[in-house]
Amino acid sequence: MQQSARSTLDAKVPAGRLQDKWDAYKDTVGLVSPANKRKRTILVIGTGLAGGSAAATLGALGYQVKSFCIQDSARRAHSIAAQGGINAAKNYPNDGDTIWRLYYDTIKGGDYRSREANVYRLAQVSGNIIDQAVAQGVPFAREYGGLLANRSFGGAQVSRTFYARGQTGQQLLLGAYQALSHQIAAGQVTMLPRREMLDLVVVDGHARGVITRNLVTGQLERHLGDAVLLSTGGYGNAYYLSTNAKNSNVTAAWRCYRRGAYFANPCFTQIHPTCIPVSGSYQSKLTLMSESLRNDGRVWVPKDSQDRRAPHRIPEEDRDYYLERRYPSFGNLVPRDVASRAAKKECDAGRGVGDTRLAVYLDFADAIGRLGQQAIRERYGNLFEMYERITGENPYEVPMRIYPAVHYTMGGLWVDYELQSTINGLFVLGEANFSDHGANRLGASALMQGLADGYFVIPFTLGAYLSGTRVDKQVTVDHDAFREAESSAQGRLLALLAVKGDKTVTEFHRELGRLLWNDVGMARTRAGLEEAIDSIAALREEFWGRVRILGENNTFNKDLEFAGRVADFMELGELMARDALARKESCGGHFREEYQTTEGEALRNDRDFAHVSAWEHTGSNSTPVHHQEALAFETVELTRRSYK
Amino acid sequence: MPPSAKSVLQAVASPVGRKVLTGLTGLGLVLFVIVHMLGNLTYLQGEDAYNLYAHKLAGYGVVLYALEVGLAAFFVLHAYIGISIWLRKRRARGGRYAKYRSARAPSRQTFASRTMIVSGLVLLVFLVLHLLHFKFGPGIGEGYVATVDGEQVRDLRRLMTEQFQSPLYAFGYPLVIILMGFHLRHGFWSALQSLSLTSPRLSRVLYPMGAVLGLIVGAGFILVPLWIYFSQFI
Amino acid sequence: MAERMTIHLSVWRQAGPDAPGRLVDYTVEDASEHMSFLELLDVLNEQLVGRNEEPVAFDSDCREGICGSCGVMVGGIAHGPQRRTAVCQLHVRTFSDGDRIVVEPFRARAFPLVKDLVVDRSAFDRIIAAGGYVSATTGGAPDANALPISKRAADEAMDYAACIGCGACVAACPNASASLFTAAKVVHLSLLPQGHVEADRRVMAMVDQMRQEGFGDCSNHAECEAVCPKGISIAGIARMRRAYVRAALR
Would the CB atoms of C49 and A78 count as touching at under 8 Å? Predict the structure, then answer.
């Protein structure tokens, strides 16, 4: 069943010393003259940090940009929900940070499954992002002296995280959105909100357009361009319950995959340890609380799985502070993947707490005793408030209950150093690509990557593509490729409506989520993955026979939108399981129970798996082809992450 | 570059300009009613006081005339913008809510704030009648003569006494004044907010002051008519 | 265990902008006190689809109170009765067993209705495009610490920058005015030195756009502040007026 790796992908990483690669690239890259930029139309899908910043920047450079978003406004993209902060190697606190250290921490945090050159470039431009954001009026936190404040985040040894209260993502996104608005007013960007990309149009091997559905009228639209930039975020919603927004989906990326873009490392998903637990079957999404809570909160469960006492009635000797016990040096501050797996282990052993028994305590009693309630309120007041609003419990008095939740996906469409996918002219930015986070993303680096791609990388690499490519000017939206793509999108919508079955879209989505969470979640096994592949295939078949979507195609129809997305999530879910099965090692967010140390820690296999898996679609009913990009580590030594 | 006449006009007609003008004229009118109320209270100071006050006021001649014109302009402008804001608001809402209620504090939406247009229109009609009765009412020629400091003056005191001995005036007038009190209750603070003379901290004082002002001015105006009306039975 | 409740809903149903609309009564039995209000609507929709009735259309995305997608009138109040809470964070435990709750779309001429509870708030985007930005194109920015900004100014700017653009201020305003939304952006940028350069042009253009979109005038009811999920103060409106007058006189 499993096809072996066929080829080694070329990432087109420039030659030379790691530190010089990006500069050398920029020195020699082709440019597009101002007169020609005016004649080029760039289609940007998504208006999050990556898409918004790219569209604004390209518009300002003189390109004609069409920007699409699924929400009613570009300002609502899910980047807005990021709380914690954004890393940059500014070394303002003078605590020893350098570009190299940020690079090193990121590549090590990713468990050595990311591409050195990309990560180094990310660290290099990180400082420019902060400059840019401040120039736009992003109100970062400041010290009394008027300079920018920094904090240490996610266990980093240096303070390199910039933040705007607990709303850093919001402020950075609004900065990009305002820059985008400026270009809209200037006539450089045409904004098309409430549009969903349903297909990519490829003409002679080049991405030349997209098919979108106007979500208000249901009309399908053809858009022609010289290049397509996909910045549509991650696929965490495949699990149904995740911290992603309700509209976050994989459809645009998945349609590109089906048109020939390779999908890389789909099994690399991040499960965040400090989320508010599920309270019932109606649960529609999960809410994350910043992991900074673990700086002062202590994680514990009762030692005895039969212990049903209220938390404050459980004496110290009957509590198990399992993170402190298992990881004495890092304790409650172990990385996200380690903390998440440990919580799962306790709950699997029956020691979980709360009604559902799928939660562990995060207790601030000690910190409140030590620092006083006021100090805790100053540090975490807004988080405590949020927790109380959602659960109805006061965390100053009762320990918080937390449980891991799907939060981010490191996998995505495969891109080379220029952020170009395996389809010419299709560039993929931000969370939608796979590039910079390897098998595990560090805190405060998602915002950094999205903005790096959009503000500072794509302006160069897109120019390189356009200056080096002869785009066929004869192509119009009447080209056969457009006609074919539109009719296939239309056919799919009509097919969904035609099923007229007896189960709702949500029921199917929930079922898919349950399958993925159980078998392609925090701990994976060969048997489980094989079973998941079969179960998902069966669910897909059931979906196309039993889904019930009411209403019409040519109206505002949320159920129809969601149905298409769930159908794609099912296909993706299968690929995630397939990828997890092929990666016979444990690394970062991917934990295969067969590959662990005697102490139960992840066991990486660098000899056989220091590569990117990239999957090629070969048809709806045939097995995808597994390609590899070998990861060469020239500057860092591959060590085992240890938090003991 | 100095602003052109056109741009100034545009600014005045803008949502901000209109509020600033409403606030400015409103505060001017507040000042006027306070003075008017204090003047009315002289009625209670004895036989000649009120007529003396009125006579002195009339003695300002051209200055008074200018003030009256200014006052009229303020009033017309205030009413005009107020009505146009109300008309615009009706257009801006579109469909009506089947259910609507205030979220309460820190909202300052009150009976007073929601009925500004009603209280304002009533005041507008009242003002016309009021001017006809008093300002352009019977004077020396009609026999309303009093002697103050040996000089013959218009006997406004008599006119006022006669008017308020009628229950219609004695009780109708206070009703209008109560509405004015409500108008001041929201209007005073609102004017300051429109003129950006507030801050969250200042508002904590200024907002209650609107109520106090409405109460005091209202009570001051109501006192005299009721006094006159009930005095006739003693 | 969580308390189970019966909630009666009167929901505005309208197939499209030109179709007639009306309130339709529904009942959700077995609602959990821990559900969010939007999850209550989700459950209702599941039941409706089960009965072959079209589900209620409403906008929502992040469901953690930051994206500003959601927003409906709940019991006559924009986002419902809980202060500083977007409707996605409003929980059923706020209500009592057996309550009847009227659910209506945000109503304003400048927010044309799309379907059921969904409205078009693109007027807000046009107000921002009129001037709600700093013209700093990518690449030319000086070092972020080149210009110190007092902590107080930065904190205050953040208070206004927190606006999520949900439109509750307009919906709740008796005049359907967008003054709080517009002021939030004007004041956020005017408090920072980066925003000074374009301050005059910005405030004039944004206020003018607000008028053109057909929003009402502000009558200082302060209802907007009371329903704002981020608690943005009407002091911002006063500041915007000051900035406007200054700009107009220059």
Answer: no
- The answer to whether A110 and A102 have CB atoms below 8 angstroms apart is no
Q: Is residue A328 part of a domain?
A: yes
Q: Residue A245 and residue C53: Cβ atoms within 8 Å?
A: no
**Shared domain check, A484 and A393:** no
Strands A64-68 and A189-192: parallel
pLDDT digits (tens, 9 = 90+) for A365-419: 999 999 999 989 888 888 899 899 999 999 999 999 999 999 999 999 999 999 9
Given a cut of 90, whether residue B83 has pLDDT beyond it is yes
* A379 plus A519 within the same structural domain: no
End position of a domain, from candidates A379, A407, A435 = A407
The average pLDDT across A179-194 equals 98
Any CB–CB contact under 8 A between C121 and chain A? Answer: yes
A279/A402 same-domain check:
yes
**Do residue B199 and residue C109 have CB atoms under 8 angstroms apart?**
no
pTM: 0.96
Q: Could you give the residue ranges of the DSSP H alpha helices within chain B? A: 5-13, 15-41, 49-58, 62-93, 111-114, 116-130, 156-165, 167-194, 200-231
Confidence at residue C1, expressed as pLDDT on a 0 to 100 scale: 52
Tell me the mean pLDDT in the region A425-433.
98
Q: Give how many domains chain A has, as a whole number.
A: 2
On chain A, the residues whose CB falls within 8 A of the CB of C62 are 76, 78, 80-81, 245-246
Nearest to B105 among C23, C108, C226 (CB): C226
Contacts by A561-566 with C-beta closer than 8 Å and gap 24+?
A: A561/A196, A561/A213, A561/A215, A562/A505, A562/A506, A562/A509, A563/A496, A563/A505, A564/A196, A564/A198, A564/A251, A564/A492, A564/A493, A564/A496, A565/A237, A565/A249, A565/A250, A565/A251, A566/A505, A566/A508, A566/A509, A566/A512
CATH number, domain with residue A525: 1.20.58.100
Across the beta sheet with A227-230, the strand order is: A189-192, A64-68, A41-45, A227-230, A426-428
C5 φ, ψ (degrees, to nearest 5): -135, 155
- Whether complex ipTM tops 0.90: yes
- The DSSP element (H or E) to which A199 belongs, if any, is strand A195-203
- The verdict on A57 touching C (C-beta cutoff 8 Å) is yes
Q: Domain check: are A276 and A402 in the same one?
A: yes
Torsion of Cα atoms, A76 then A81 then A87 then A88, to 10°: 20
**pLDDT tens digits along A312-354:** 999 999 999 999 999 998 899 888 888 999 999 999 999 999 9
Question: From the CA of B197, how many Å to the nearest CA of chain C?
Answer: 8
Q: Per the omega criterion (within 30 degrees of 0), is the bond before B106 cis?
A: yes
Task: Note whether C38 and C86 are within 8 A (CB).
Answer: no
Give, in order, the Cα–Cα distances in Å from A335 to each of A155, A156, A343, A440, A522.
Answer: 7, 10, 13, 9, 14
Interface of C with A in 97-116 (CB under 8 A): 114-115
Are residues A592 and A493 both part of a single domain?
yes
Interface of A with C in 162-181 (CB under 8 A): 164-165, 167, 170-171, 174, 177-179, 181
Interface A-C, measured as beta-carbon pairs within 8 A, has a size of 223
User: Which chain C residues have a beta carbon less than 8 Å from that of A148?
Assistant: 144-145
Whether C210 and C182 have beta carbons less than 8 Å apart is answered as yes
A242: chain C residues, CB-CB within 8 Å: none
Q: Read off the pLDDT of residues A503-546 as tens digits, 9 standing for 90 and up.
A: 999 999 999 999 999 999 999 999 999 999 999 999 999 999 99
What are the structural domains of chain C?
A: 4-104 (3.10.20.30), 122-138+147-249 (1.10.1060.10)
Residue ranges per domain, chain B?
17-91+110-231
Cα A255 to Cα A251: distance, rounded to the nearest angstrom: 6
Is residue A585 included in any domain, yes or no? Answer: yes
